[in-house]
Every structure is written in structure tokens, then in C-alpha cells.
């Protein structure tokens, strides 16, 4: 196995040797002609500079790149960035994102943070039901997106050892704006984006922008599941020795959350055939239905809590921030960034706890004293040959996810040395209530019906499809989290231009974390209550899941020491080599609560082993630049040690992982009007240690060997046309390494035409060939199953048209 890996790495090395030889005969120099090839980057650098002069791996996406890629969600933007695996099948949030073989063992992005203007949207990327992409929206107010991959992120941000994705917004320094109207052609989507920037006084600039949309997205939910928008404003004042900027954001958006769906799988684990069921299309179907729009449950405060299922992921964020920088003279500079965000909302989505055919589903094993079943609201008996689900309705109220961030930096620059020191201070609230219910629903993508069940006496044991108030099969899950995470992180970086060609940089960061608060709902408790107000205690109301109101105290500290040392050597103006060694970590926030540890004993070795997830990384690479091309090649290694707890499987894990591979990122301008961008990542990953000894030596779940993207683009006169090819090779659904998710390649074509100087039209498509692209699955094998696997796939083909007016 190892010999094959090194053979592949040698092949990549030979490719780059050839590229280096080619560059020696090229006379054009990128210093004079390559501004579009080698731009200045600011993310993850204490001294912004052209990317060829850095020992980091960073990609920049401009507005046009993102528009052409036709992302339907924020996470879909990241699919075209080499090294980043973005499982964007969950909708406008709850996406799983990781970098370079670092595992996805929990929902969200534990090892990568999303930033807006250099500060994190959330302090942790994997908060259950409150992931950072839920509170992030891309719109035309964004100037560009920078994606830093690798270990240098360990010293520039807390809880992001594998990478940073930074949304950099407009400041108004460029006069003008735009209005873009987008319309879904084969799905309901109506969206308007706008932005405007102008100078309002001497060296004073105003920018504002945002979006609003309404529709039901690329999957059929039966109602307007996407409804909301965002508004942002920025005021910048520049003066002789610095600048001051203040900005604000208001986000209030409702979008559908897509959970795993019933998928038909035949064949064997090693050679499975994935397909849609006869009455459920996995490419455009959704578990949401017009027949389940209202949910009534018992709140953790003891009161009845009513919810609208069409709210889905309801994200509310009210943000105000400021930036100040000043040149103190004699090489000294001061920079301050500060932001406060008031975040709250709700997450409500159906999850299939179990799926089977009616003849297997409606039995005494699942329903005590089963008598009969009818479609809710009718006397029509169910079809025993159809499929049915026990739905776990994830209903989570995000009470308080507020955060505060302050990053203070001071730097000194000598002739060949720049030193930066700073203090990062932040706090993050995690206050949420889990209030889940259990329903019975048919498997259908067209207004799926709820099912009511009668016992042998003819008495309903369900109420309009509701089986249990609470999740009885999973131990109730009436939880409350109310914790606060306080972070203090001194950090420092130094950069030395040792020679004209050699640059050495080093940095260190120490996160001092303090966690306080409580959580409750750890024991199973039930009460009897008339939930529907009919004056009778019906069977589902005899055991209403309730919070135990036993507040478990949380009071512990953690520390994360991160460092990164890198060197960049410029062979000439077109070639450079670099290397880096890094260590970092990410704190386990809510993911380790309810796992049985002593959360008030800092000396408890069991808690100490799980409260920080650690990542060690080594990377080395080669950068090639030319007048019309570039190629970045990075060899990487990552070792990860982490702990996790999954609500859907009720399993606790403590694993060690290792991965190594190579990442290619390239661009070539073939002619004036034709160019191509491409990225390729090869990863060999292995589980080195685990609580479950049977998975040691296996490949971590959902980790493909190869990921790739290719973007040919052709422009002539007023016409621009091209496509994105995005794909991955096969991967295992679970760490047991049995059931395979097949490889896939999806094609996203686009075409735009400039009608006049300031007016353009475009048509974009996503997954034009309706490729079945499975991104995750609950089951680890089809052996002994019923031919149904619960999985998430990328949406099928969707087409949109837009008109953009620039002014």
C-alpha cells in the first residue's frame, strides 16, 4: 500500500519537475504581467504579500468566479477550492466541511473557521444545530473570498488548525454598485442582490448591500421554505496614517434543512447500486411535507412550545463591528478589530429514525398491540407494500448564540524583519433547547401523508401522525445547553527576510479557555399532560417527554498551544519552494456534554483527554508562476486526535487519525479568450487508534482518495461561457469500511452575455446530468438490511437565470 502511495507522489513530483523546466524557457515575468495570476493576500498573513512570496496555501475567489460556479448555498462556494471537502447537501447550513484529510467526525467544520473581514462568525465550527454556515450568507456585498489551507491557520485564529475561509466585504472605495435579479427556471426561487459604494466626503466612504429571496429551493418541500434576507452597511474613514471603519449586519433568513433520505441500495457493499425509490426522487425530494407544518411539544420550561416546520433553519444575526489601524511611525503599526453579534433562531427538520416496508414496519415489534394503520385524517388503510418512516423531528430552539470578538495587534518592521504581537479575546454563548418529537410518515416526495396507528382495541395510539412527545427510542432527548466559552489568546509572529530569496516565518498562539454554565436533560423523564387541549389524556399524552431539570454544572479550563514555522525560498521570480511545520487544536464545545464526564474537575484525566482536539501538520510545496499560468503543488501530512458524541447514533468516540497526500492548484491562459482552472487533491487517510479496535487501520468515513474541480472558460466579445466539473472518487459511508459511496462528477455549465455596457444576462445550471452524488449515509452496510439506506445526496439539476445591472 505504502509503495503505491509513494509511486503516486513521485509521479506528481515528476509533473512539477517538468513544469519547472518549462518555466526556465519562458521569458515573460509575472512581476510585470501577472497581477491576476499572483494577487496580494491578507488572510493568515501578518504581512500581506503576493502568494508566491508566502509559505502558505491560499486561494482567492472573486465575485465572477463565484457567480459562474452557481452555488445554491454558501457551502457550495467552497467546492471549487482545492483541498477543501464541502459536503454541501444539507441546505443553507448544517454542512460538513474539512481540509486535507482532517476527518469529518461531527457535523459542521470542527477544524476550519469561516470569517467575515478577519473575525470568526462563530467561535466553534461544529456546534450542534448551530453551525457557522447557518449564520453566513454570500451576497454581492462580498468583494472576494480567501481560503487559507494548512497549519499556519493555527496561529492566526482560535479553533481553526486546518484552515480559514474569509469573506472580505466591500468598503465603498470603488464607486458604483449593482442590482442582480435571479430567478429559478425549474425550481421556485426569486432573489434580489444589491450593493452600492460611494465617497460621501473627503476620504470617507459608504457601502451598503444585501439580498432578499423567497422560494422553496432545489428540493420540493411543499411550501416556501426559503424566505428572508440580509442587509449590511459599512462606513470607512481614511486619514494620513491610518483608517477607521464601522460596519453592521442584519441577517433574518429561513431556509430548509435537508436530512438523510431513504435511498434504495442493491448489490453488495463493495459494488452497490444507489437509486431512487419509486415514489421518492433522491435528487429533488425532501422529507418536509405540507401535511407536517405544525409541531407542538413540551418546552424545557414546562410550557407548551409551538413551532412552524416551514421555518426550517431560521437564522437571526445582529452584528456591529469596527476596525482601526494606525501608523505610529518608525516602523510601528497598531491594528484593532472588534465585533459583537447577537445570534439566535431555530433549527427544525425531519430525520428518518427508521425506514421499512409497511409489512415490516407495522408489526408488534414496533407497535405494542398493533391493530391497524390509516392515513391521518382518513379511514383509508395504509398500503402495506409502500415504505414508511419513524420521523425524529429535530426541533432545536437557538436561544442565545451571541459572541464577542476583539483582536488587538501591534507590529514593528525593521529592514529585514517584521514582528507582530497581539491579544485575542472572545466569548461564545451556547444556549439551546432540544425538544424533539416522533411522527409516522409515508415515504413520498409529493405531499407525504402522516399515518395514524390503532391498537387491537381500535384506539388510536397516535395523534395526527404523532407517536411520541419526545424521542422515546433515543432516551427522550429533552435537553438544555446553557454554557459560555471565554477565550483569551496571546499570539505572536515574526517574519525574517534572511536573504533576497529566503523568507522565514514563525508564530505561536496559546488559547486559554474557560467554560462555565449548566446543562440539563441527562436522565429520561416523562409526565402526563393534555397537549392538544381536548380535555382527554390520549395515549401519546400519557408519556410526554420532559426535561429532568437537573442542572449539571460546567466549570473547567483548557489550553491549546499552537505554533507554525515556515520557510519560502524563491528560486527566481517565477518559482518558489516552501515548507511548514505546525501544531494546533480545536476545543470540544457542546459536543462532549452529556457524555458522562466530570465537568467541574480540571484534574480529571478522562475530561482532559477529550476537551481539546489536536492536529499536527507538515506541508511542503512548489509554486510556479508565469505570464499566463500558475501551478501550486503541496505535499501534506496531518495527524488528528479527537473526541466526539453523536446524538443520532448515541455513540461516544475517541479516535486518532493520520492522512498524507498532495494538493494541486493550477491555472493556464491558453489564448486571450480561453483559460482553464483546475484543482486536484489526493489523500491517503487512516484511523490509527480508536475506542472500537475493529476500525483501527481503516479509512475514515466519507474520505475519498481524490477530489477535483476543473473550470474551462471561454470569452469572446460580449459572450462568456464555461462549466465547472466537480467530483470525488468513492468513499466509505462509515469507519467500518464496508458500504461504498460511489464516486461522482457533477457538471455546472454557465453562459452570460453583455447586452450593453452596464447590463448583462446569464443562465447557470447545477448538476446538469442529474448525477447521484452521495455525501454521507447513516448505515455502514447493506448486509442484513432491507435495501434502504438513509443518506444525503447533492441536489439534482437546477437552472437559474439572472439579470445584472451595474451602475
Automatic annotation (TrEMBL):
<dbReference type="Pfam" id="PF07715">
    <property type="entry name" value="Plug"/>
</dbReference>
<keyword id="KW-0675">Receptor</keyword>
<keyword id="KW-1134">Transmembrane beta strand</keyword>
<keyword id="KW-0998">Cell outer membrane</keyword>
<dbReference type="InterPro" id="IPR000531">
    <property type="entry name" value="Beta-barrel_TonB"/>
</dbReference>
<keyword id="KW-0813">Transport</keyword>
<keyword id="KW-0410">Iron transport</keyword>
<keyword id="KW-0798">TonB box</keyword>
<keyword id="KW-0732">Signal</keyword>
<feature type="domain" description="TonB-dependent receptor-like beta-barrel">
    <location>
        <begin position="273"/>
        <end position="768"/>
    </location>
</feature>
<dbReference type="InterPro" id="IPR037066">
    <property type="entry name" value="Plug_dom_sf"/>
</dbReference>
<comment type="similarity">
    <text>Belongs to the TonB-dependent receptor family.</text>
</comment>
<dbReference type="InterPro" id="IPR012910">
    <property type="entry name" value="Plug_dom"/>
</dbReference>
<keyword id="KW-0472">Membrane</keyword>
<dbReference type="InterPro" id="IPR039426">
    <property type="entry name" value="TonB-dep_rcpt-like"/>
</dbReference>
<keyword id="KW-0406">Ion transport</keyword>
<protein>
    <submittedName>
        <fullName>TonB-dependent receptor</fullName>
    </submittedName>
</protein>
<dbReference type="InterPro" id="IPR036942">
    <property type="entry name" value="Beta-barrel_TonB_sf"/>
</dbReference>
<feature type="domain" description="TonB-dependent receptor plug">
    <location>
        <begin position="53"/>
        <end position="164"/>
    </location>
</feature>
<keyword id="KW-0408">Iron</keyword>
<keyword id="KW-0812">Transmembrane</keyword>
<dbReference type="Pfam" id="PF00593">
    <property type="entry name" value="TonB_dep_Rec_b-barrel"/>
</dbReference>
